[in-house]
Amino acid sequence: MYKFFLYTILIILYLGLAKVLSPSEHGVQYLQNAGGFSKIIKGNQSTVILIDTHATGFLIKTYYQKFRVISGYENVEELIVRTSKEFAKKNLNHIGLSLYRKSDELEEFLPLPPGSLYIGNREFGEWKINKKGQTVWKFNKVFKNFPKYLGWGKFKPDMNFYQQMRSSISLNHPFYGPHKEFGPGGKITRRNFPHFFKEERMKKLDMKTLLIEYFKENF
Given CA atoms 31, 37, 43, 46 in this order, what sign does their dihedral have? Predict the structure, then answer.
């Protein structure tokens, strides 16, 4: 009888902690998989860049991802959505990449460097020959802030980058740059999206530490 009572108390505690430590999801859109982007992103000539991902909740996890949405002629915005566990884990290696692009009613879901939608599109810029004789992409003046929004920093894509990217697209392979400059291991992504790579976020807490912190905050 005592054991039954103890098990009942443990189950109630388990469900209670899970509920308390899992935040409310009211007002947050849900993304089951990449196909759901079309319902969330309405602007044309849009690219969606994954800039953060995390899980909350003590025993029952809830997964969230943060995206930067850039539309060709509209404002840049950041969007937080709740996602499925599968989609969140699938994209852990795609931080800093564009997961979704929409142009003229066409949709693309292959993970690519941010800005891949605009490179080579004369509506947004043109190819220029620099002092070193390299052919590089330059945005038109009206889009001069795009490199900042895209997380490029001082990076300027050249024709070699563009051709390799197009080759990866034709093979349906994710592209991280000729030298893997983009993504969680890429120097460009790590430099321009530093929040995700802060040391304290990389630490994993054990169950004992989580319990101690929970009871300190709530009792």
Answer: positive
